[in-house]
Design a protein that fits this description.
- Helix content is 29%, strand content 21%.
- The chain is α+β, with helices and mostly antiparallel strands and 473 residues long.
- The protein has two domains: 151 residues, Chloramphenicol Acetyltransferase; 211 residues, Chloramphenicol Acetyltransferase (2-Layer Sandwich).
- Helix 3 links the parallel strand 6 and strand 7.
- It starts with a strand and ends in a 6-residue tail after the last helix.
Length: 473
C-alpha cells in the first residue's frame, strides 16, 4: 500500500530575532509583476506559502547546517532580502537587501513523533514575514526510519518572494556547502529510440476555445460540522510510480508525449470523474501549468520565474472522459486521444512567448497609480474574474536535477513541494520525480474540501495516472 501523509493547518510560529549588525548595501529592487500581484492579493486566512521538504537517510550536524544555509543565503542575495517600508502612495513595492538575517532562519527539532506534522502545519498556516529577511525559514526534523534516524529539511517560503524551483536551488547550494560535493544539476537522460516499426500518423490537435465558457469548478465536498473546516489548507503527500511511455519513434523530433502530459491528462480525468460523481454539470476543464525556462545551475535567477499558461480541455476531451467514466474502466483508445491532443497543446504553449500573468497582469502592475490604488483595483479585478479561474493548478518540476548530497547525512531519498491552493480555485497538485517515483503533493482549500474528500480526490488522481501508462501494445 502506498504510504500517505495527510496534513492540515494552523499552528503559529514565533522565531527569536537573530543579531542584526551589518548595514545592508542600498540597492533596492522593485517587485516583479508576479511579486506585486501576489502582494496585492495576500490573505491571512490562506497564506501564499511554498512548502518544500527534502528527506535524508542520516542526521545532519546542527551548527554545520546552520552555517551552510547562512552561506547559501549570502551566495543567493535574492533570497536574503526584505520588503522595504512603504506607504500607499508609493509607486512601487521594493525589495531591499537584508545583509544579515533579521530572524533566525534555521530551527531544529528532535525525534518527536509529532514534530514533522507540526512543521507541515506551519508551512500551510504561516508565511515568513516579507518585511524581515530572509522570507524563508528552514526547519530540520529528526525522524525514525527503517534503518535508524533520518532528517527532514522542511523549507517554507513566502510566495511573494520565491517559488519552488528557487527553493530547491537554495537547498542544493546548502547541500554543496554542507557536504563539500558538487550539487550541479544533472542533464536529462537520453531516451532510446523505438525499434523499427511502422510510424503512427501525426495528429495535430486544433486549439480549444473555451474563453466564453466558465471553466469547471471542483465540486465542493466538506463536513461543515467538523471543527476547523473551512480554515486554511489541507495537504496530502504520497508516492506514485512514473507512468510508462512509448519509446520515441526513429527520427522523431520529440516524444509522442511527456510525463507532464500524462499528469495533465490524469488531473483532467480526476476532475471530470469527481464532478460526475457529485452530479456537477459538465464544463470545460482548464488547468493552470507553470512554465519555467530558467537554468538550474548556480547562475539560476531566484525569485518567481515561471509564467502561468492555461491548458484547456474542451468538448472532444469531455466526450472521451465521459466514455471512459461510463465504461467503468479506462478506455485505452480514449486515453490515447487525450494524450495526443494534450501533447500538441503543451508543446505549442511552451514554445510560445508570453508574459508571466498575461496582458491583464502587466496592466495592473504598471506604476502609473500609487500601489494602494493598484492593490484595490487588483483585488476587485480578481474577485470579478473568479468565475473564470482555472479548475486546478498542476505544477510539475519533473526530475529533481540535484543530488542533494549532504555528506555523512546522505543523499535525498524523497523530495516534495506544494503550491498555494487559495479559493476560488482551491486546488493545487505539485509533482517531482526521483528514482522512478513521482512525489505528489495534493493541497486544497478547506473551504472547498475536507480531509476525507482530499484523500478521495488523491485516489482518483492515482487511478487516472495509472490509466495513462503505456501498456507496450
Amino acid at each position: 500500500m502506498t504510504p500517505r501523509t495527510l496534513m492540515t493547518s494552523n499552528t503559529p510560529l514565533h522565531q527569536p530575532r537573530a543579531p542584526h549588525t551589518a548595514v545592508p548595501p542600498p540597492h533596492p529592487a522593485p517587485f516583479s509583476l508576479v511579486d506585486e500581484i501576489a502582494r496585492h492579493c495576500a490573505q491571512e486566512a490562506e497564506p501564499e506559502t511554498v512548502h518544500v521538504e527534502v528527506h535524508l537517510p542520516g542526521v545532519v550536524d546542527h551548527p554545520r547546517l546552520r552555517a551552510a544555509f547562512g552561506r547559501a543565503l549570502a551566495r543567493h542575495p535574492r533570497a536574503l532580502l526584505r520588503q522595504a517600508p512603504m506607504r500607499w502612495w508609493h509607486r512601487r513595492y521594493l525589495w531591499e537587501p537584508a545583509g544579515t538575517p533579521d530572524l533566525a532562519p534555521v530551527s531544529f527539532a528532535g525525534p518527536d513523533p509529532g514534530a514533522l506534522r507540526r512543521a507541515r502545519d506551519r508551512a500551510l498556516a504561516e508565511c515568513p514575514p516579507p518585511d524581515a529577511g530572509p522570507p524563508v525559514r528552514l526547519e530540520v526534523i529528526e525522524q525514525a526510519t527503517g534503518t535508524g534516524t533520518g532528517s527532514v529539511l522542511l523549507l517554507t517560503a513566502h510566495h511573494t518572494a520565491l517559488d519552488a524551483p528557487s527553493c530547491l536551488r537554495l537547498l542544493a547550494t546548502t547541500a554543496e556547502l554542507y557536504g563539500g560535493a558538487a550539487n550541479s544539476p544533472a542533464p536529462p537522460p537520453v531516451r532510446a529510440p523505438k525499434p523499427a516499426t511502422r510510424r503512427t500518423r501525426r495528429n495535430s490537435a486544433a486549439p480549444v476555445s473555451t474563453a466564453l465558457r466558465r471553466p469547471a469548478r471542483i465540486a465542493a465536498a466538506r463536513d461543515n460540522t467538523a471543527p476547523g473546516n473551512g480554515d486554511g489548507n489541507g495537504m496530502l503527500l504520497t508516492e506514485l510510480p512514473v507512468p510508462a511511455r512509448p519509446p520515441r519513434a526513429p527520427g522523431a523530433a520529440r516524444p509522442a508525449h511527456t510525463v507532464n502530459d500524462q499528469l495533465l491528462v490524469a488531473a483532467f480525468l480526476m476532475a471530470t470523474r469527481w464532478n460526475r460523481l457529485h452530479r456537477t454539470r459538465a464544463a470545460p476543464v482548464v488547468l493552470t501549468m507553470p512554465v519555467d525556462d530558467r537554468p538550474r545551475g548556480t547562475e539560476m535567477p531566484l525569485g518567481n520565474g515561471t509564467r502561468l499558461v492555461p491548458v484547456r480541455f474542451g468538448p472532444a476531451d469531455l466526450r472521451d472522459a465521459a466514455q471512459t467514466a461510463a465504461s467503468g474502466t479506462p478506455d485505452p483508445a480514449a486515453v490515447t486521444r487525450l494524450l495526443r491532443r494534450t501533447a500538441a497543446r503543451t508543446h505549442a504553449l511552451k514554445a510560445a512567448p508570453g508574459r508571466p500573468l498575461g496582458l491583464a497582469g502587466a496592466v495592473l502592475t504598471t506604476p502609473v497609480l500609487p500601489v494602494g490604488v493598484r492593490a484595490a483595483v487588483t483585488r476587485r479585478a480578481r474577485a470579478a474574474a473568479a468565475p473564470w479561474t482555472s479548475t486546478a493548478l498542476l505544477s510539475n518540476i519533473g526530475r529533481v536535477p540535484y543530488p542533494f548530497d549532504f555528506g555523512e547525512a546522505g543523499r535525498a531519498t524523497g523530495v516534495w513541494f506544494s503550491a498555494p491552493a487559495r479559493m476560488p480555485r482551491g486546488l493545487s497538485l505539485a509533482t517531482v520525480s526521483t528514482d522512478g517515483r513521482i512525489q505528489l503533493t495534493l493541497r486544497w482549500s478547506r473551504a472547498l474540501l475536507d480531509d476525507a474528500a482530499g484523500a478521495t480526490l488523491c485516489a482518483l488522481f492515482e487511478e487516472s495516472l495509472a490509466a495513462t501508462s503505456w501498456s507496450g501494445a
